[in-house]
Amino acid sequence: MYLRPCRCPFIDQNPESDHFCSQPQNPFREREREENPALVFCLVTQKTEMGISELVHSIDWEHESYPEYQHFAVLPFFALFFPTVRFFLDRFVFEKVGIRLIFGKGQRTIAVDTYERKKKIRKFKESAWKCVYFLSAEILVLSVTYDEPWFTNTSYFWVGPGKQAWPDQKIKLKLKAVYMYAAGFYTYSIFALIFWETRRSDFWVSMTHHVATLILILLSYILRFARVGSVILALHDATDVFLEVGKMSKYRGAETLASVSFFLFVLSWTLLRLIYYPFWVLWSTSYEVLLTLDKEKHKDSVQIYYYVFNSLLYCLLVLHIYWWVLMCRMLVEQIQARGQLGEDVRSVPETLKVKTNTKIDHYNNLQLWLDMREAEMGISELVRSIDWEHESYPEYRDFAVLPFFALFFPTVRLCLDRFIFEKVGRRLIFGRGQQTIAVETDERRKKIRKFKESAWKCVYYLSAELLVLSVTYDEPWFTNTSYYWVGPGNQAWPDQKTKLKLKAVYMYVAGFYTYAIFALIFWETRRSDFGVSMSHHVATVILILLSYILRFSRAGSVILALHDASDVFLEIGKMSKYSGAETLASFTFILFVLSWIVLRLTYYPFWVLWSTSYEVLLTLDKEKHKVDGSIYYYVFNSLLYCLLVLHIYWWVLMYRMLVKQIQARGQLSEDVRSDSEGEDEHED
Fold first, then answer.
1. Of 276, 327, 350, 395, which is the most exposed, with the fewest CB atoms less than 10 Å away?
2. Whole-angstrom Cα distance, residue 176 to residue 60?
C-alpha cells in the first residue's frame, strides 16, 4: 500500500505511530476512518488544499483580454476580505506582539489600562496591518511585473506585444488580479479611515488620497493604463513598508531602528516618488504616449482618457509634495534631537512649529530639466492640436471627467489655504509681525478661517469668470439671446451641438459646485443661511447638469458669467472687511450691489428668463419634439425661477446691510448671516 504523509500539524508524522495520517489506495478502510476522526479531518484538509492548488495551477494567468466593467464584480469580495483578515490579525497576532514589544515579555496577557497605553497599542496595530498589506502588495506586484519589458522601459507602456498600441492593448489575467487586490484594499481603507483608525490632523488629506487612488486604479484599468498603473503601485508600496516599520519601531522605543527606517523611507520617497515618478512615469504618460497614439482613430475618446488620467496623476504628485513637507519637519526635529526620531507630526497639529527655510533649486539637474521642458512642449502641442471648436451632441459619458474636478478643487484649496491664504490673512489682519505667530484666540481663528474661505471663493469666481468670458465673448448668443436657440446653420433647439470648449467650461463649474456641497457641510463656517446655501448649491449642480444634457448650454454659459462677476466683488469686500480696510470694503460692496441689481435682478429675469420662457417657443419644432420639448422646457425653467427666488432672498440680506452701512456713515457692518451657535469650535 502506498502511504502519502500528511502535512497536518495535528497528526503524528511518525509512520510507526497509530495516528500516522495516510491516504490508502485500498477503498475498504472505511472502518479505520470512522475510528480515527483525526485521519478523516486530515484527508479532507489535504483534498481541499489539493483542489485549490490544482485550481490555481489550472488558471492561465498569462491569458490576455480587454478590461471590462464586469470584472469589478470581484471587488466586494476583496473589500470584505481585508477587514476580515485585519480583524483576526489584530485580535490574535498584533495585539499580543504589540504588548510584548512595547511593554515587555511579562505584559503579553496583562490588560492595557491607561488611555496612553491603549492609544500606543492601537497605533502599533494600525502600522503592523499596513506593513503587512504594503509588503504583500509589493511582492505581488513585483512577481507579476518584474519580467515585463515595461517594468524597466517606460516606452513599452504604450506598445506591444506585437502590433498592439495604446489604448488597444489587452491586459494579462495576473495583472487584473493585482488591480482587484489593490482596488479592494483602498475601498476598504476609505471606510477604515472613517470608522476604524485613529483620527489625525491630516484626515482630509488621507481621505482625498484614498479616494483619488481608488479612482486612479479603477480608471487606469478601464482606460487601459494598467501597465503604468502597476509601476506606480510598486513605487508607492515600496516606500510605505519602510514608513510602517519605522513607526512600529518608534512605538516600541527602538530609536535606532526607527531612525534607520525613517531615513530609508525618506530616501526611497525622494528617489521613487519625487524623482522617478514625475520625471519618468509622468513624462511617459504626458509625452511618450503621444508618440504612439493613432490620433485619427482615437480622435475623441483618447482626449478624455489622456486628460482625466494625467490630471489625477498630477493631483497625486501634489499630495506627495504635501507629505514631503511633513517629512522635512520630522527630519529637522530628528536632527535637532540628535538622531532620535520625533513623534508623528500628523498626531497633534499644534506642535507643528518647525519652519524650514531651505531653498530648493528645481533645475539643479540639467537632464531632468530638459525632460521637463520636452514634456511641457508635448502637452502644449497636444493642447494646440485639439479642435476646441469641434461640435458634438452632449452625452452622459462626458461626465466621466467630473470626479477629477470634484477632487481637483479641494486639493488646490488645501494647498492654497495652508501655504498662501493663511500667511496672507495673518499679514493683512494682524500685521506684518504676525505672519508666523500662532493664532490663539477663538475670535482670531474665526476671522482667519473666514478670510481663507473668501480668498478661496474669490480665486474660483475670478478664474471661472475669465474662463467663461474667454469661451463665450465672441459667440453671437453672448449679446443676442435669440441665438440661444438657432444656429449655426439649420440647427435649432434642442437639436443643437455644443463646442468642446463650452463642454470644458461646464465640467469645470459642475466639479466646483459638486465639491462645494461637501465643503459646506464639512469645511466651511456654519452660518444662519446654511439651508439656503445648500439649496443654492444643489440647485446649481442640477441646473448645470440638466442644462448640459437638455442642450441649454448657451443660455447656461451666460448665466454663469452673470453670477460669477458679482461674486468676485462680494468676496473682495469680505476680505477687506476682515482685514480692517473699511473704505475698500464699502467701495467693493457698492460695486457688488450694483452688479447684483444689473446682472441678477435686471438682465437675468428680463433677458435670460424672457428668452428661456418665450423666445425658445418661437423656434421649437413642436411636432417633432412634442413630448421631450415640453419636459425640457418646464423642468429647466422651473429651476431657473427657483434661482431667481434665491436672488431676491439674498437681496433682502444685502438691503439690510446697506441700511446698516448708511446708519454707520459708510462703515460696512458685519455679515448679517451670523455664525450658527456652537460653531466656534469648528475646525478649519
1. 350
2. 12
Question: How far is Cα 138 from Cα 555, in angstroms, rounded to an integer?
Answer: 52
Rg over CA atoms, the chain: 31
Phi, psi of 392 (to 5 degrees): -155, 160
Q: Which residue, 245, 295, 235, is CA-closest to 131?
A: 245
Cα dihedral sign for 31, 36, 40, 43?
negative
Residue whose C-alpha is closest to residue 299's, from 386, 404, 391: 386
* Kind plus residue range of the DSSP H or E element containing 173: helix 173-195
Residue 285, Cβ density class (10 Å: 0-12 exposed, 13-18 middle, ≥19 buried): buried
Q: What are phi and psi of 198, to 5 degrees?
A: -65, 130
Residue 147 has φ and ψ, to the nearest 5°, of: -100, 10
Whose grid coordinates read 528645481? 362
Distance between CA 235 and CA 210 in Å, rounded? 16
Query: What would the grid cell of residue 36 be?
Result: 480515527
Instruction: Taking residues 31-60, report their average pLDDT.
Output: 57
**Res. 46: pLDDT tops 50:** yes
Nearest to 170 by CA among 178, 180, 160, 179: 160
* Structure-derived torsion over alpha carbons of residues 78, 82, 87, 91, reported in degrees to the nearest 10: 130
Do 470 and 541 contact (CB within 8 A), yes or no? Answer: no
In one-letter notation, the amino acid at residue 326 is L
- Classify burial at 280, counting beta carbons within 10 Å of its beta carbon; exposed 0-12, middle 13-18, buried 19 or more: middle
Query: Would you state the pLDDT for residue 572?
Result: 93
How long a stretch of residues is the chain?
Answer: 684
User: Using the 8-state DSSP alphabet, how is residue 494 labeled?
Assistant: T
CA distance readout (Å), 127 to 88, 232, 594: 15, 22, 57
Secondary structure (DSSP) of 305-359: HHHHHHHHHHHHHHHHHHHHHHHHHHHHHHHHTTTPPPPPTTT-GGG------PP
> CA–CA separation, 161 vs 656, rounded Å?
70
Helices 173-195/226-252 angle, 10° precision: 40
The three three-digit cell numbers of residue 394, written as one number: 452632449
Residue pLDDT, tens place only, 431-477: 765 544 444 577 788 888 889 989 999 999 999 999 999 999 888 88
Cα first-last separation, the chain? 76
Residue 643, all three cell numbers: 434661482
Strands 171-172 and 391-392: unpaired
CA distance 557 to 608: 11
User: For residues 92 and 84, is the Cβ–Cβ distance under 8 A?
Assistant: no
Q: Which three cell numbers stand for residue 420?
A: 498662501
Using alpha carbons, select from 654, 617, 352, 406 the residue that is nearest to residue 515.
406
The residue assigned the cell 419634439 is: 625
How far apart are the C-alpha atoms of 26 and 304, rounded to whole Å? 66
pLDDT value at residue 506: 92
Q: What is the DSSP letter of 74?
A: G
> How many CB atoms neighbour CB 210 within 10 A?
19
Query: What pLDDT does 604 receive?
Result: 92
Joined grid coordinates for residue 522: 464639512
- Secondary structure of residue 625 in the 3-state scheme: coil
